[in-house]
Amino acid sequence: MGLLQLLKSQFLSHLLICYVFLVSGIIINLLQLCTLPVWLLSKQLFRRINIRLAYCISSQMVAALEWWSGTECTLYTDPKSYPLYGNENAIVVLNHSFEIDFLCGWTFCERFGVLGSSKVLAKKELAYVPVIGWMWYFLEIVFCKRNWEQDRRTVAQGLQNLHDYPENFWFLLYCEGTRFTPKKHQISMQVAESKGLAKLKYHLLPRTKGFWVTVQNLRGTAAAVYDSTLNFRNNETPTLLGILHGKKYHADLYVRRIPLELIPEDEAECAAWLHKLYQEKDAFQEQYSQTGRYPAPVVSPPRRPWSLINWLFWSCLLLYPLGLLLAQLISSGSMLTIFTSVALCSAASLGVRWMIGQTEINKGSSYGNKERVEIKKEKQESC
Ligand SMILES: CC/C=C\C/C=C\C/C=C\C/C=C\C/C=C\C/C=C\CCC(=O)SCCNC(=O)CCNC(=O)[C@H](O)C(C)(C)COP(=O)(O)OP(=O)(O)OC[C@H]1O[C@@H](n2cnc3c(N)ncnc32)[C@H](O)[C@@H]1OP(=O)(O)O
Ligand SMILES: CCCCCCCC/C=C\CCCCCCCC(=O)OC[C@@H](O)COP(=O)(O)O
How far apart are CA 246 and CA 238, in angstroms? Predict the structure, then answer.
């Protein structure tokens, strides 16, 4: 094992990375809070400042993927569409099978210069996750409760607010609504069967309402849908803990640009269009599993140094005072102070472990796990 690999495997390195992420994240969250009065003076200035502050947080995770773990992210796409990426607003539709799929998405956002402004239709629970969830409030991220009756108005309103957004953004939609598990897959295929829809092998049945409401509300704002299919080579099952341990993965992303005008306006037709899209996505996954390739040329944008520079900046800023504090602590010789500091560090590392747990599929929600009869019963009871 090389020296660098040894360093990457050390618990102390992970502790320091998490310390920098957590402390810088909370400082940035506080700075974001301070920008609230700017909203009253100029909404656009508030947005531009928060795009940059958010970049300081999310690019640290991108740097961990690109520079610490050295994960390779390859893009397969039509060379004619390539110049448009990053230069227009778009709705991104992505499969939801991997614990770090959102991070690979962020990596492409970084490479096309839209990381700070990237958006997602996120489950409400994520709004309470410190640093990332709190950062999202200031980015006008759209949250949903995954209950159409409660979401239809708030989601439409959130999307309408993006009409005058001052910088290009990608709006990510995981139409499957939850991460792929064999049980969720089996149940969603029962739903597909009962609706007379074709079965999917690699995806859950997409939820169509969020897609329809997004397309309708972003007409005139977004130029296209980027149909994106992500996979990892050699059946890798990447995790955030793996990234922290410096494990290198190989992500392959296939993107098709579909102009928004091609998507039907009528709700039922739009739903049928999305089901057809997922059948095509399933075929691409099948091709990938057979050949290890997608039906498009590789046009990978290179990684940029900015995420690394930002990460080094925060590390220097925060590790130096930490070193001084530790030196003082040891020289003080006070057992009570040392004990309190160890307890605080343990609590913080448990907190970060809980945050990482949010990305783990085996700790995922029960959404999509219930039979239709159970859902109907629950809905009737709540009425
Ligand atoms: C060039 C490079 C290109 C691309 C780069 C890639 C990406 C980069 C882009 C941006 C990055 C930005 C940010 C990334 C960072 C972080 C993201 C992290 C995480 C957030 C992700 C999430 O939180 S996912 C969960 C939340 N999101 C969603 O759920 C979206 C999808 N859901 C919907 O759209 C839903 O419709 C809804 C949420 C709006 C409403 O939910 P509800 O449950 O009420 O759904 P429906 O009304 O649709 O469902 C009821 C109908 O469904 C049938 N049913 C019942 N059981 C099932 C089942 N198991 N499967 C399928 N369908 C089922 C039921 O019968 C109902 O049928 P009807 O006939 O009555 O409609
Ligand atoms: C610089 C490196 C720092 C390492 C430490 C990182 C600590 C921060 C860790 C995580 C921050 C939280 C990111 C939240 C993104 C979670 C994305 C996600 O995949 O959500 C799942 C959701 O779609 C569906 O949920 P379910 O499948 O229904 O359940």
Answer: 11
